[in-house]
Amino acid sequence: MSPTESFATRLDRHLERVTRRRGELGAPQVAVRAPALGVDFRSGDAARFHVASVGKLATTTLVAQLVEEGAFAFDTPVADLLSSEVVAGLFEATETTDAAGGATVDDLLSHTAGVADYFDGPVASGSRMRDLVIAEPDRPWTPADLLAFSRERQHPVGRPGERFRYSDTGFVLLGRIVEETTGQAFHDVLHERVFRPLGMLDSALLFHSAPERDRATATAVGGRSAAPTRPVIAPLRLGRVEASRFTSLSCDWAGGGIVSTPDDLLSFSRALHDGTLVAPDTLAHLAEPRNRFRPGIHYGAGMMQLRYGGFSPFLAGLPRPTGHIGVLATHVFHDPVHDADIVLNFASTREMRRSFMTLIEIERALRHVSP
C-alpha cells in the first residue's frame, strides 16, 4: 500500500465511525491536500457551505493587502479611518481619547480593541444575537444593524490594547474600513482581490453577492449579468435547529458571512500561505500568537495557531497549524510541517469536539505517511 493509499484508508475508517455517530447530520465535508506527500483527499460532498468565522481569514487578508499597499498601517488609529458616528459608543473612551478610544487596526485584528461581541457577547437588555437568529429566522441584518446592536445593547469590554476579548463587532468595523478605504462594497472587494484571482468560482458573501459560477451560468442561459444573491448551501445546525435557509444568517458579514466549498477553501489556504495573497513577513505578523483563545488555541492578528499539547500532553509533538475555526465546526488550517492544507465542515454548533478529533486524526495520518 502506498503512503497516499495508507492516508486515505486510515482517514476513511475514522470518518466512517464519525458519520455513524453523527446520525442524521450525515458525513462531514473533509478535504486535505499535501502535494509533497501526494495527498489529495476528499470525503463528503462538495456542496457550498457557510464557513462562519473561517471568513475572518478573508477579511484579514484584505486588510493586510491594504497595509502592504500603504493605504494605512497596522498601527493606524481606527478613528483615522472611520467616522465618529460609526465608532461612537463601541469603545471605552475617556476625556483624553477619541470616540474609538485610541484603538488601532491591529487591535481590531487581534481582538484587543475592547469592543463587545455582538454575536455571542452578553447584552444589557433583550435577547442575545445567537438566540435572535433562531427566534426570528426571517429577520435581515445589515452591517449597520450589527454595530447598532453592540452600541445600544452591549458595553465595551475594556480599553484598547488592555486584554483579549473575541469580537465579531470588531470585524464588522474592519469590513467598514475596507469599504471606506477602497470606496467599494465589501463583497465586491472580496471578489476582486480574493475569489476571482484564485478561481474560487463557488464562493460569495451570502445575501450580498453571487458565486462567479452562478453569474456565468445565468448570463449564458438568460443573458443576465448577475444571478440571484442567495445560493443554496448545505444544511447547518444552530443547536438542534436546521438554519441553512434562515434570512437571519445575514447577521454574519465581514466576520464570517462567506459561503464556499472545500476545493475553493483549499485554494484560498494555499494562496494565503505561499505568498500569493500577502507577503511572507505580513503573514508572519498575522500568524504570530499573542493571546490564548482557548486551551490549545492561540490567536495572532486575524489568525489562530493550534497547539495540540494544550488539548493533551500526548499530542504535543504534532505540528502547529495556522488558520481559523468557525462556530459551525468549520476549519481551514495550514500545517507548515507537512505543507498541508486542511478544510473541515461539521456544520453544527454541537460538533466542535468531533471536528477537532478529526483534525487530530488528520495530523496523525499525515505524520504516518511523511518520510
Automatic annotation (TrEMBL):
Looking at the record's lineage, which domain of life comes first?
Bacteria
InterPro entries per the UniProt record, alphabetical: Beta-lactam-related, Beta-lactam/transpept-like, Diverse_Enzym_Activities
Q: Which UniProt keywords apply?
A: Hydrolase
Q: Where is the Beta-lactamase-related domain?
A: 47-350
What GO MF annotations does this protein's record show? hydrolase activity
Q: Which Pfam families match?
A: Beta-lactamase
This protein is called: Serine hydrolase
Q: What is the source species?
A: Agromyces luteolus
Q: What is the lineage of its organism?
A: Bacteria, Bacillati, Actinomycetota, Actinomycetes, Micrococcales
